[in-house]
Amino acid sequence: MESLNAQKQKLISSVSLPLKFLVLLWMIHLFQWGTGLDLGQYLGLMPMEVRGLKGIVFAPLIHGDFGHLISNSVPFFVLSVIVLFFYRKVALPAFFFIYFLTGIAVWIFARQNVFHIGASGVIYGLVAFVFWMGIFRKSVQAIILALIVTVLYSGMFLGVLPGQEGISWESHLMGGLVGIFTAYWFKNDIEEVEKKPVYSWEEEAYRSSEKFFLPPDAFEKTKMQRLKESEEKRKIDWTSDDTSRSSFWD
After folding, report:
1. Is the pTM value of this prediction over 0.85?
2. What gap in Å lies between CA 91 and CA 95, rounded to an integer?
3. By the number of CB atoms within 10 A of the CB, which of 42, 117, 188, 212 ranks highest?
4. CA-CA distance, 247 to 17, in Å (whole number)?
């Protein structure tokens, strides 16, 4: 078990990175608001066009207005802290998977002739990642986190439906699918707290198996294996008897 101080440090570092990322998002948007520039026209993601490739990196950092930014800030912060705190072993590679693969998928499959901006695709990826980690790992911690995310963000699933004006539902859908893929990719990288402890009674049962009348693997052997062992034993016994009789007769 981790000490209280270690847990505190872990929480602080888990909060620090998402907070810094949010500061970056707000600084970019304040710059855009202050200068009157529409950064989406320069750095947004335009599907299937070379000029839109830079949006794979920059589009999640740009938002249309303060309402757009605020609506993305809270879920991004909460989900990032959850992933960093509870899935520390895979948090950073999983985040980069979601961030870049979502952008690539949107560039390939989303509507053309329109710029896609905002961090919502990444958010949907994080939601799907936490939820499906619970499905794939089936540990108590993973399942509880999946249930929490479901309760908090179940309404977001409507965001993947097409035909919503002014919303990049393709980013939401691609982010969700990438989140599922990422959860599957890292499903075997178990955290220390998720490992099943070996209890003393299990160790004692294993040690005491040597005291059993039958060997522990007696019922694991096939019928053919037991017949073969029995035949080999009879041959050994017969040879031993012949040797003893020969010595007596001499």
Report:
1. no
2. 6
3. 117
4. 85
